[in-house]
Amino acid sequence: MTERLILVLDEGTTSTRAILYAPDGTRRGVAQRELTQHYPRPGRVEHDADEIWRATLACAVEMVAAAGGADRIAAIGITNQRETVVAWDKRTGEPITRAIVWQDRRTADQCRALVKAGHEPLVQTRTGLVIDPYFSATKMHWILDNIPEARALGDALAFGTIESWLVWKLTGGAHLTDASNASRTQLMALEDRDWDDELCALMGVPRAHLPEIVDMTGDIGRCDRALLGGAIPICGLAGDQQAATIGQGCFAVGDTKATFGTGAFVLTNMGAQLPRSQHRLLGTVLLQLGGKRTYALEGSVFVAGSLVKWLRDQLGWIDRAADTEAIARATPDNGGVYLLPALAGLGAPHWRPDATGAIVGLTLGTTRDQIVRAAMESLAHQCRDLMEAFAADGAAWQSLRIDGGMSANDWMAQDLADMLDLPVERPADVETTALGAAMLAGIGAGLFASLQEAVAMRPATRRFTPALAPTDRDRRLAGWHAMLARHLN
Ligand code: ADP
Questions:
Q1: Is pLDDT at 281 greater than 60 in this prediction?
Q2: 404 lines ligand 1 (CB under 6 A)
Q3: CB neighbours of 418 closer than 8 A, spacing ≥ 6?
Q4: Residue closest to 282 by CA, chosen among 269, 257, 299, 263
Q5: Atom number, ligand 1, closest to the C-alpha of residue 15
Q6: Where are the alpha helices (DSSP H) in 183-317?
Q7: Beta strand 282-289 with 292-301: parallel, antiparallel or unpaired?
Q8: Ligand 1 touching residue 384 (CB < 6 A)
Q9: Phi–psi pair at 121, nearest 5 degrees
Q10: Which of 56, 137, 399, 475 allows an S-S link to 186, with CB 3.0 to 4.6 Å?
Q11: 14: Cβ below 6 Å to ligand 1?
């Protein structure tokens, strides 16, 4: 029998990919398209949803051809940048405005007003999320208030996160979202299976616009034959961070992964226990299979790879992202320089949407390379703060599994091990997000009976062990915390 493959559509913040996997986890092909980032005003970040769809379809078409036709593909899995909101007209399937991206801070005032009115404790207890422009609800409300066509459409207006948008386009009109993506909207209670009327009223988002919430695996929908040459079943959906956690095989309580892409996202498996953070971490749905939920505690850092991109594109200090590795390695220390990477506000555990970046400790002797090194060090510093917040919430890490485009940086992987004083493990293939979506789709298509079976798709890992003297670690952390205290008060 000819082997059947799994097609993953991985819609990231900066690019869209389609990746073909064999059931043993080997990759059989990749197609990729960059996405245009629109920054119309400070604090605003938008994507063109139509461009996302066209790029995704083009990549999928390429991979279906590489596979030898639609009947060679057992299932599609979709994983996506979370929280980003698309608004479209259900009658035409056309977006009515640009997608508002997760990094967008335009609803900071609305969030401040909600906090001031005393709503945060309710929202946090119910959704596991703090009030911040990051989440979808205030973005949806902004569209209703600011795009005249939105209200005019009435019930014909559809809201969805990116997986929802892609499912709509692929199936020709199914309006669905999965539980992991739904848990990021701030409109679903963590323990519930449906939208929460009180949260919808508070956030000003009528549920008529929202998709149906479904499991993360199963027969979720079939592709319109005209698109890919066959009615390929969509069998897996997951937000990118949940997918990466699955792809890292974090199935036991306490297992933790950190994905370093545009931002950095750390998730610890909490099992069936509802995560209730006392330290401004997020509670989120990790898995929903057969209606059964597993939860995770999450720390979201908004700026990681985007800091490297900023060094390259705005400052022009490096030619390629990977240059940061050689520079950090060749620069013996930070020379007392610390960089606060709050280029898109600050996420967990600080949650300061208004914070801006800073570089402190400059002297006449400071070199450009020391600033680059300070930028790279800031990633492990932020991760260390998260580790302490997780431990205080009863989720101590034993090791950290890393992935994402930026984790290819060996210097950063070692610096994380050094600053966390924990072993850091990195899979040979750092595209764990796509792998997790492939595992879910494989389960949904019946190629695997369980997550434990799907884990056979995982590659070998490399381990980085702590090697820094405790005094050096303490000195760096003291410098970092002094800088935070100065800038965040
Ligand atoms: P996303 O899925 O969020 O679009 P990726 O996982 O593709 O992001 O990671 C890309 C990011 O990682 C970019 O922001 C890039 O600057 C950064 N990056 C890639 N390789 C390296 C490297 N070797 N060292 C440091 N940063 C890197």
A1: yes
A2: yes
A3: 380, 466, 467, 468, 473
A4: 299
A5: 4
A6: 197-203, 225-228, 240-247, 305-313
A7: antiparallel
A8: no
A9: -55, -45
A10: 137
A11: yes
C-alpha span between 11 and 125 (Å, rounded):
30
Question: Sorting pLDDT into bands at 50, 70 and 90, what band is 349?
Answer: confident
State which of 406, 407, 412, 432 you would mutate to test the pocket of ligand 1, scoring each by most atoms of that ligand within 8 A of its C-beta.
Answer: 406
pLDDT at position 353, please? 75
pLDDT at 59 over 90: yes
Separation of 408 CA from ligand 1 center, angstroms? Answer: 8
Burial 261-274 (b: 16+ CB within 10 A, else e): bbbbbbbbbbeeee
Length of the chain: 489
Whether complex ipTM tops 0.90: yes
Contact (CB, 8 A) for 286 and 295: yes
13 Cβ closer than 6 Å to some ligand 1 atom: yes
The pLDDT of residue 323:
97
d(CA 294, CA 154): 35
Helix, strand and coil in the chain, % to nearest 5: 40, 25, 35
The sign one gets for the Cα dihedral 238, 243, 245, 248 is positive
Tokens of 80: 């996506």
Dist. CA 306 → ligand 1 center (Å)? 7
Residues whose CB is less than 8 angstroms from the CB of residue 251 and which lie 6 or more positions away in sequence, other chains included: 269, 451, 452, 455
The predicted-structure confidence for 41-51, as pLDDT tens digits, reads as follows 988 999 999 99
Task: Indicate which atom in ligand 1 lies nearest the CA of residue 408.
Answer: 23
Confidence of residue 283 (pLDDT cuts 50, 70, 90): very high
Residue 337 in tokens: 């320089």
For the CA atoms of 264, 268, 274, 278, the dihedral, rounded to the nearest 10 degrees, stands at -70
Domains, the chain, with CATH or none = 5-241 (3.30.420.40)
pTM for this predicted structure = 0.90
**CA 247 / ligand 1 centre spacing (Å):** 18
Helix (H) or strand (E) holding 109: helix 108-116
Residue 379 has pLDDT above 70, yes or no: yes
Say yes or no to pLDDT of 1 above 70.
Answer: no
- Sign, Cα dihedral of 119, 195, 130, 293: positive
Let me know: does 215 contact 179? Beta carbons within 8 Å: yes
CA distances from 435 to 26, 136, 353 (A): 10, 25, 32
- E-assigned strand segments in 276-362: 282-289, 292-301, 338-340, 358-360
Ligand 1, atom 23: closest residue by C-alpha: 322
Amino acid at 322: A
